[in-house]
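Suppose you are handed a protein chain with no further information: no name, no annotation, nothing but its sequence. What can you learn? This example shows the usual starting point.
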Amino acid sequence: MNFNDISTTISLLHTRRSAKARDLVAPGPDAEQLRYIFQAAMRVPDHGKLSPWRFIIIPDDERENFADIIENAYIKEKPDAGRLEVQVMRSYALNAPTLIVIMSCPFENGRIPVWEQHLSAGAACQNLLLAATALGFACNWLTDWPAYSRLIIHALGGSDTDNIAGFIYIGSNIKMLEERPRPEYESVVTHWSSNTS
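A reasonable first move is to predict its three-dimensional structure. Written in structure tokens, the prediction is:
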């Protein structure tokens, strides 16, 4: 294989990096670009053809309302939270020009294990990031406390069995993306042998 003639797709996979949500500024993707991104996100492994995920766009004119929901949910769970803590939680709704919440919506009591359906939602998150990056945008995939709050999940229309797979922030980066350490090949790739005890 000639790695000097590497394809655009492999190059993207080898160089993709996360931005910081707070550093993302306009422009973000327009409606046509978002549709293109979502179409890529939907082309993930999906055992049983269940589509066990949903993409929820938080529009600009709803950002403050969503921030209020996050703040109220956080204070309800942590009534002694300090002002800075609350501001950090509110920022989950306010960073970047485009905010998408990906909900993992597994079908329980079927023949496809729920775990596989959650994996499909994670794959949808990654495809979404790759498609947005291919269009020239910078992205950040976050979870943290807001992703695990049942109050927030319900406010977004999720059920008791749904989970937030991630908050995806998309925009244009104002800072150079920093490379972070990656694992050594030999530390994560092995060859199995039946002789290994």
